């Protein structure tokens, strides 16, 4: 698999002494919104970090654009792969635009934005574009402390997009958000994928995951199923992974998972 792909090949990864990911093979493509789902302890976040090169595999490998991830220079890998960690903290006293500017790798925050290289027109344009795409341009001059949880999540997303990556990896981006903000995050993920970005999100909410283009269902560190939401979100797969009796149906064209008592 070649250009604009991020691929796990027979990946085995430990979390401490525990084998958290066991022989997972999965392809992720640019222009696709993929969701990684599964019960707690299934290995979802460990897999995500392995795809970024943050968790080194015990066996198998990750390939970026057909090339082993370990062969990519660190700076180039960081430019192509953006990561939004779960519960990521933002500097509360920072202006929104300054936070997003950090995604350009041209500065750092220590009680103020400190440039680490000359700022360019390309940097400025990339920040404005990221603010626009995440609907945060309207409050670019506000302080982070003044924002709601959903607004802060969009600012974090804008910071990741400012680096103009090829893949965006999100670890539980809807966690601790209410339904409206959760749907908003998924809408932005879908829009970015439609624009050509590869988006990979760890999600717990199956009805939000059903809005993805492609799903990977993990159970016990292994890939139980992968494919379209229709192929993965079946009553049999949900029972095998979650021990859940559920109905899966369509309503207004959307796939819905309804747990049964």
TrEMBL record:
Keywords: ATP-binding, Nucleotide-binding, Translocase, Transport
Gene3D superfamilies linked: P-loop containing nucleotide triphosphate hydrolases (3.40.50.300)
Domain of life assignment: Bacteria
GO function terms (MF aspect): ATP binding; ATP hydrolysis activity
Limits of the ABC transporter domain: 6-245
Name assigned to this protein: ABC transporter
Organism: Deinococcus aerius
């Amino acid at each position: 698999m070649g250009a604009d792909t991020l691929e796990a090949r027979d990946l085995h990864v430990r979390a401490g002494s525990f084998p958290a990911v066991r022989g997972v093979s999965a392809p992720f493509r640019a222009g696709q919104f993929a969701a990684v789902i599964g019960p707690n302890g299934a290995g979802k976040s460990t897999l995500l970090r392995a795809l970024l090169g943050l968790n080194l595999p015990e066996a198998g490998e990750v390939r970026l654009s057909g090339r082993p991830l370990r062969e990519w220079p660190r700076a180039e890998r960081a430019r192509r792969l953006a990561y939004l960690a779960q519960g990521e903290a933002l500097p509360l006293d920072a202006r929104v635009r300054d936070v997003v500017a950090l995604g350009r790798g041209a500065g750092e925050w220590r009680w103020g934005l400190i440039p680490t290289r000359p700022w360019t027109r390309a940097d400025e344009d990339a920040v404005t574009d990221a603010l626009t795409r995440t609907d945060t341009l309207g409050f670019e001059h506000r302080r982070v402390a003044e924002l709601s949880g959903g607004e802060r999540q969009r600012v974090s997303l804008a910071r990741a997009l400012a680096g103009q990556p090829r893949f965006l990896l999100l670890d539980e981006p809807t966690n601790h958000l209410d339904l409206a903000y959760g749907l908003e995050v998924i809408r932005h993920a879908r829009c970015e994928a439609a624009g050509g970005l590869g988006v990979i999100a760890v999600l717990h909410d199956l009805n939000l995951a059903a809005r993805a283009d492609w799903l990977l269902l993990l159970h016990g560190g292994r890939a139980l199923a992968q494919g379209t939401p229709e192929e993965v979100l079946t009553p049999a797969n949900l029972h095998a992974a979650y021990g859940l009796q559920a109905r899966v149906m369509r309503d207004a064209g959307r796939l819905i998972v309804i747990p049964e008592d």
